[in-house]
Amino acid sequence: MANDTEQTQPAISDLLDVWVDDHLGLRKVGVLERFRENGRAYQAKVAFHYLDGLNDADAVSLIMPIRRASYEPKVAGMVGNLPPVFDQNIPEGALRAYLVNRYLKVITDMGDFELLHLAGNRTIGRIRVVPHGQSPDGKRPVVPSLKEVLATTDSQQLLEELFEKMAHHSGVSGVQPKVLFSDKQSDETLDQQNISGRHRLTLQQDGYILKAAGRDFPSLAINEYLCLYASKMSGLATAHAELSDDGQVLAIKRFDLDEQTGHPIGFEDMASLSALTAHDKYKGSYEEMVKTMAAMLAPQERRALMVEVFKSIALSCAVGNGDAHLKNFGLLYEDPTITPRLAPVYDVCCTRAYLDSDQLALTLGGSKRFPKRDALVKFGRITCKMTGKEVHRVLEDIATGIEVAALELHYFCEHYPEFNLACGERMLKAWDIGMRYTLGMGPDYVLPASLEYVGTSRPKMAG
Question: How crowded is residue 184: how many other Cβ atoms within 10 Å of its Cβ?
């Protein structure tokens, strides 16, 4: 049952205050204002206004510099009508449905503006959105420790209980069930602390994002854990992940918090940086995404970082990930005056384990079909400005990473029968296909079943 505070949630006004919280401290920078006519909620427009007297470092987005004029998205209505940087953390899927149902009695028309009101105080990145006249706070319910969550014999049930407590404390996107999670408790306000299309359930707290598989995609937690492991073994910077003992819940360590100071780091996904909302996350091509990203990176670092971007996209293709959309790539920055850097790999899974005929989320070379090696080589050479030897070396790294991760995949298939039946065997098939055709190992290639055979069955590929 909801507590009294939740049941008496105040009415949603048409003003929200926007704060940024980073290494420079917590400060109010602007106001989100909604314009609507009585009885015409579906025609509402939203504008963002900066306050006077701000510095460049106070900007809320890399593509929204300080200016006197307001930022007014062209879209009107209840959904997709926020500036992209505010849209990027709007709850989706299970979290959105839960919040809509929880507050249905007091909020009859629940749109993106209302969801931001409910969950905007705690989001991924450095932006905090709160009701007009209020300040961000660090209050959160008492929850079990992460160790308890991961060691329980029914982590799915425990996550559902956390979902009840943490849903309105979790400004995080993604249709999979999830929440932001931290087992550190605080009742202080942040300014007092002087801080300088796949269904899943997700909850957010300070340290981790907890994810669980939805009904449509059983064993997705193990699936994603193994794909993240393949990413790490390929040499890619990868968000740290821990799997619950029962294999039902995945804990992703938040990469938008400074490890030494704990202060938030700016994060924007490539949908936001492309001036698009979540509804357009499958729009466009990997070529366009890479060009947008490259233009924001420091020239002296761009070439090396483009190799990492290529590696991330190629890995996603090789493991059969048809959900590598614009929101699954992003940039990190301390504040908008400091050159951004690549976010680590944080969301990758084998969707072909559930849908053999799945396609890419964005086009590559004008097609959404999973690419063969020649198409990847062309993409690396032309779009990412790599040499043939660099492309060859990257694809070799990915092959090694997948082969090492395949040993873990065999282990989980053997020790988790439900995973094996749900998607384990199909993951092995999808990875075999990725190795044979996407990485060009040939039709006779078979994933190794022991460490001594890693790399032994690969043909010599030309650079």
Answer: 12
CA distance 237 to 94: 29
* Residues forming beta bridges with residue 243, ordered by sequence position: 250
What would you report as the CA-atom Rg of the chain, rounded to the nearest whole angstrom?
22
Q: What is the mean pLDDT of the chain?
A: 84
Q: What is the DSSP letter of 458?
A: P
Tens-digit pLDDT profile for residues 331-365: 999 999 999 999 999 999 999 999 999 999 999 99
Quote the tokens at residue 122: 């705690």
Per-residue pLDDT tens over the stretch 116-153: 888 888 888 999 999 999 988 766 555 566 776 677 76
DSSP class per residue in 337-404: TS--EEPPB-----GGGT-TT---SSBBTTB-SPPPHHHHHHIIIIIS---HHHHHHHHHHHHHHHHH
C-alpha pair distances (Å), 247 with each of 59, 149, 206, 332, 449? 41, 11, 22, 30, 21
pLDDT tens-digit profile of 85-107?
Answer: 999 988 877 777 777 777 777 77
Rounded to two decimals, what is the model's pTM?
Answer: 0.86
Whole-number Å distance between alpha carbons of 192 and 26: 9
Please report, for residues 3, 99, 201, 267, 358, the alpha-carbon distance to residue 104 in angstroms, rounded to integers and kept in the order given. Answer: 15, 8, 20, 31, 36
* E strand spans, 105-166: 127-131
169 and 121 Cβ atoms separated by less than 8 Å: yes
User: Rounded to whole angstroms, how far apart are CA atoms 20 and 58?
Assistant: 7
Compute the distance between CA of residue 106 and CA of residue 137 in angstroms, rounded to an integer: 23
CA angle centred on 85, ends 82 and 89, rounded to 5°: 85
Region label for 286, one of left (φ > 0), alpha (ψ between -120 and 50) or beta (otherwise): alpha
% of residues, the chain, pLDDT over 70: 80
Whether residue 151 contacts residue 242, with contact meaning beta carbons closer than 8 Å, is answered with no
Q: What are the extents of the domains in the chain? A: 14-216, 283-438
Core vs surface per residue 48-65: b (16+ CB within 10 A) or e: bbbeeebeebbbbbbbbe
The helix or strand, by DSSP H or E, that contains position 243, with its residue range, turns out to be strand 241-243
Taking the CA atoms of 357, 398, 256 and 81 in sequence, report the sign of the dihedral they define. Answer: negative
